Amino acid sequence: MTYSSALRAIGQSLEVIRIEVFTLSHRNGSHIVRSESLTPTCKWILQNRLLENIRDCAANGINIEFSGGDRWLCYDPLIISRLHDQARRKRRTDCSAHIRQMNLANDLRALGEQLDIIQVTTFSIDWSPHSIYVEHHTMQGERGRKIFAIETLHQLSLRGVSQRRIDKTIADPSE
Q1: Is residue 1 within a helix (H) or strand (E), and if so which, with residue range?
Q2: Total domains in the fold of the chain
Q3: CB 35 within 8 A of CB 22
Q4: What are the φ/ψ torsions at residue 161 (nearest 5 degrees)?
Q5: At CA 56, angle to CA 77 and CA 63, rounded to 5?
Q6: What is the DSSP letter of 64?
Q7: For residue 164, what pLDDT is reported?
Q8: 105 CB contacts (<8 Å, ≥6 apart)?
Q9: How far is CA 46 from CA 5, 64, 128, 144, in A?
Q10: What is the chain's pLDDT, residue by residue, as a tens digit (175 residues)?
Q11: Sign of CA dihedral 39, 32, 111, 163
Q12: Per DSSP, what are the bridge partners of residue 72?
């Protein structure tokens, strides 16, 4: 899964519990979110939301559970995949999904697209409502740092959605 898709799924879950300041790191296929605002209640809410649409997994013996501790959560690839699928189904049935909103999920997706472009292997993001600090390592072993203003991510997000609409129309001219 691309970073843009994974970060969007994580952003959608963080929106549910209204987390606005956090650190997100990616290593060894998992994403770790740390925040002073992450409480046991937040974890409980996310766990129940994740499970509400996948009761059949528990019936089939598949265990899907957030791991984490005091003020942190781990999003492993299975959880991210489930969150991604859940959100995609919701977007398909939600009439207001076509209205573009500035939100955490879209901004994280835009940032993920940038990470996909430069082909990073690991990264760490310090997120606040006004600025985002990113450190990363590329496949070529290079290290990089970048600071984004939230407005920059809004613009990248809007540009990205316009390009995806164009690409989709080219792929399927009937729309």
Answers
A1: none
A2: 1
A3: yes
A4: -70, -35
A5: 45
A6: -
A7: 42
A8: 8, 9, 11, 12, 15, 87
A9: 18, 12, 21, 32
A10: 899 999 999 999 999 899 999 999 998 889 999 999 999 999 888 888 777 655 545 555 556 677 888 899 999 998 888 888 877 777 666 655 444 455 899 999 999 999 999 999 999 999 998 899 999 999 899 999 999 998 888 888 877 544 443 333 334 444 4
A11: negative
A12: 34, 69
Copy the structure tokens of residue 22: 């956090």
- Written as six digits, the tokens of 59 are 């019936």
With beta carbons less than 8 A apart as the criterion, state whether 116 and 4 touch: yes
> What string of DSSP letters covers 82-140?
HHHHHHHHHHHH-GGGGS----HHHHHHHHHHHHHHTTEEEEEEEE-SSEEEEEEEETT
- Provide the pLDDT for residue 96: 52
d(CA 110, CA 105): 9
Q: Which domain holds residue 89?
A: 3-171
How far, in Å, CA of 161 to CA of 56, rounded?
33
Residue where the block lists tokens 């001219």:
173
